[in-house]
Amino acid sequence: MWISFIGFMASGKSSAARALGEATRLPVVDLDAAVAGQAGRALPDIFATEGVAGFRARESRALADLDPDGQLLLATGGGVVEGEDNVRRLRAGGPVIWLDVPWEAVRRRLGAAAEAQRRPLVEHLGWGGLELLFRRRQRLYAGAADFRLRADLESPLAVARQALARALQWWERHDRDAAGGEAPRGGGGV
Ligand code: S3P
Q1: Whose CA is nearest to atom 4 of ligand 1?
Q2: Pick from 143, 146, 134: which is nearest to 101 by CA?
Q3: 147: closest CA among 5, 2, 22?
Q4: What is the atom index within ligand 1 of the atom nearest the CA of 35?
Q5: Residue 27: what pLDDT?
Q6: Tens digits of per-residue pLDDT, 48-79?
Q7: 72: alpha, beta or left, given left = phi > 0 and alpha = psi -120 to 50?
Q8: Does residue 12 line the site of ligand 1, with CB under 6 A?
Q9: Ligand 1 atom 11: residue of nearest CA
Q10: Residue 49 class from Cβ within 10 Å (0-12 exposed, 13-18 middle, 19+ buried)?
Q11: Cα–Cα distances in Å, from 178 out to 138, 147, 173, 185?
Q12: 119 Cβ below 6 A of ligand 1
């Protein structure tokens, strides 16, 4: 089973996945890092040479390369929900947890230079464009997720604990549905 974290840039997906990985000893996969590793280049470089479309294609490939039956904690990139196939894969893997953070907190976190530098879209879109993207994405995250957690008020470990509780809930329901011969889950939605 996978436990996947989705959400906008700087919502704490990687931190929560890492904290959960330390607590459970499950392997953590960071999709951005997997893309960079496979390309042998950093994300800003990929964006500069291959554009957003090139990056998205790489992201989808990196996701498709993961073992669907593996046990892992997956920190996705904020744009993974742009691809319907990506969302299908995440949902087939296991519970999908949306780390929801208000725009003001995103803005504040991304305002730190080191955070913005790793994320080419910040420079590319500017704050106005980024806020529009944030608003548009909220619907996509809501549609893809099994659970939504407010993620800016607590530590990564506290968020990770809540995520684990939700994942266990998901698992129980999944087993019950399988035993009862229920149809597999369709689309998401929180
Ligand atoms: C992106 C989010 C980034 C990274 C890339 C594009 C996006 O990941 O995948 O810069 O489109 O929202 P994080 O959410 O981990 O910053």
Answers
A1: 77
A2: 134
A3: 5
A4: 9
A5: 98
A6: 999 999 999 999 999 999 999 999 999 999 99
A7: beta
A8: no
A9: 79
A10: exposed
A11: 30, 20, 8, 10
A12: yes
For the CA of 76, the closest atom of ligand 1 is 15
**pLDDT value for 129:** 95
Handedness of CA 1, 82, 7, 188 (dihedral sign): negative
Question: What's the CA gap between 173 and 189, in Å, rounded?
Answer: 16
pLDDT by residue (tens digit) across 87-123?
A: 999 999 999 999 999 999 999 999 887 777 788 899 8
Nearest 10 degrees: Cα torsion 124, 140, 90, 102: 70
Question: Could you tell me the pTM of the whole model?
Answer: 0.94
Q: With the C-alpha atoms ordered 160, 122, 31, 178, is the resulting torsion angle positive or negative?
A: positive
Radius of gyration of the chain from Cα atoms?
16
Which tokens hold the place of 91? 């949902």
User: Could you tell me the sign of the dihedral formed by the alpha carbons of 89, 56, 37, 32, in that order?
Assistant: negative
Tell me if 94 CB under 6 Å of ligand 1.
no
Residue nearest ligand 1's atom 2 by CA: 78
